[in-house]
């Protein structure tokens, strides 16, 4: 008997007990729905968090001093940043490259003084796509140039300093020689990011003004931030870019520069994967039960088939075809019932604002979007399809083996 004939017979056998088949297909479809939604939620949420972290920090890939990661210091700089930025921008996956100076600063006003983290950047090079805090300016404006005399403060930081727009702020730094240097700026903007640790501890400064205060060269900075469209390629891009530089420049992907965020995402993804494995095991157990009961009910039928010329191998393939049809039909049914929930959660999403409160939720200084949406990566969708087919086929192995082991003389006597 040809494979097409076996496939046709298996399809008819599958629907001999419609109720049982429909129940099994329902369990497969529900499992696919859960797997797609949970995986899609993680893919979109964590992908957005990584992109936001890159826009809040040093990009998806950072060029910096080899010792900066272990002991961050403004003394650890890299030179010829314009040449390095141009080399990084040649990579086909890189979309933006910007230069920054970062470190710690003491801010003082007539009313108070406090420590903060500063980021100096070139306003002509940075956009909201590379520096997320620019999207949170609620008062004032961005710097006019890299030699501007202004300073932008986090909202809570400005409140702690008791300073308003246009007022003077003295910032104190340590240069590369360890000498104390100071600069004077007027508040030109206030930002709100939704992350309390950032709003109360971040200030922005124009890069060339800070270079002058610190005594840096024109092409000297602390880091070069590299941005890409797909954060999953961070390691791949870092490996390619590093080939252009010597040991004096470290090329660091985001998950090394932000280990807390990386650990959080890894933990969450592992938990989701474990949950999905449990679901798949339960579905596989249900499929096994369906196929096994179906085979046991047809033992006399299989015995007759063996008596008229069917081989054990053909019976084995027949049951495996039934398993495959069950998997493929389950995928189609799963796609149908998943389509609308997926569309709804990918566009409208689930608003969790009431649960997280006014301050919002943040991890490692990265604010989480209170509206949860899904957006599954294509390879993960294919992986779910493969897992469903594999689990169904494995569930059919023993029933298929059992069918191929019937003894015609004994089974034909069964009633």
How would you portray this structure in words?
The protein is an alpha+beta fold. Strand 6 (168-174) and strand 7 (180-191) form a beta hairpin. It is built from 14 helices and 14 strands. The two termini are 27 Å apart. The strands form 3 sheets. Strands 2-3-8-5-7-6 form a 6-stranded mixed β-barrel. It folds into 2 domains: 3-52 and 262-411, no CATH class; 58-254, no CATH class. 38% of the residues are buried. 51% of the residues lie in helices and 19% in strands.
Provide keyphrases for this structure.
415 residues, alpha+beta, 2 domains, 6-stranded mixed beta barrel, two-stranded antiparallel ribbon, 14 strands, 51% helix, 19% strand
Write a short abstract of this structure.
The protein has 415 residues and is α+β, with helices and mostly antiparallel strands. It has 14 helices and 14 strands. Helix 2 (18-56) packs antiparallel against helix 13 (378-404).
């Amino acid at each position: 008997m040809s494979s097409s004939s076996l496939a046709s017979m298996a399809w008819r056998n599958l629907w001999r007990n419609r109720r049982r088949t429909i129940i099994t297909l329902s369990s497969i479809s529900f499992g696919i729905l859960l797997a797609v939604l949970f995986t899609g939620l993680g893919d979109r949420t964590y992908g957005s968090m990584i992109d936001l972290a890159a826009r809040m920090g040093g990009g998806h890939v950072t060029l910096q001093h080899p010792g900066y990661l272990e002991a961050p210091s403004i003394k650890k700089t890299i030179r010829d940043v314009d040449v390095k930025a141009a080399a990084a921008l040649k990579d086909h996956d890189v979309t933006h490259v910007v230069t920054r100076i970062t470190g710690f600063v003491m801010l003082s006003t007539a009313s108070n003084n406090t420590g903060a983290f500063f980021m100096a950047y070139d306003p002509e090079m940075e956009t909201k796509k590379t520096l997320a805090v620019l999207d949170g300016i609620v008062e004032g404006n961005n710097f006019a140039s890299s030699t501007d005399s202004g300073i932008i403060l986090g909202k809570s930081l400005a409140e702690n300093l008791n300073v308003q727009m246009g007022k003077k702020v003295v910032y104190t730094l340590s240069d590369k020689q360890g000498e104390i240097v100071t600069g004077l700026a007027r508040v030109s903007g206030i930002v709100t990011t939704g992350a309390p640790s950032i709003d109360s501890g971040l200030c922005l400064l124009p890069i060339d003004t800070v270079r002058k205060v610190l005594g840096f060269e024109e092409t000297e900075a602390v880091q070069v931030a590299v941005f890409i469209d797909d954060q999953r390629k961070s390691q791949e891009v870092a490996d390619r870019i590093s080939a252009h530089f010597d040991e004096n420049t470290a090329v660091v992907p985001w998950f090394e520069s932000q280990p807390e965020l990386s650990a959080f995402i890894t933990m969450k993804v592992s938990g989701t994967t474990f949950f999905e494995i449990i679901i798949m095991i339960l579905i596989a157990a249900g499929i096994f039960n369906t196929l096994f009961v179906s085979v046991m009910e047809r033992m006399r039928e299989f015995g007759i088939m063996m008596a008229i010329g069917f081989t054990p191998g053909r019976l084995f393939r027949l049951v495996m075809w039934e398993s495959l049809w069950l998997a493929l039909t389950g995928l189609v049914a799963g796609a149908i019932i998943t389509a609308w929930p997926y569309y709804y959660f990918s566009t409208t999403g689930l608003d969790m604002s009431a649960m997280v409160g006014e301050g919002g939720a943040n991890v490692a200084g990265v604010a989480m979007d209170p509206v949860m949406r899904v957006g599954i990566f294509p390879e993960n969708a294919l992986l779910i399809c493969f897992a469903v087919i594999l689990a169904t086929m494995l569930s059919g192995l023993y029933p298929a083996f059992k069918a191929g082991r019937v003894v015609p003389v004994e089974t034909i006597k069964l009633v």
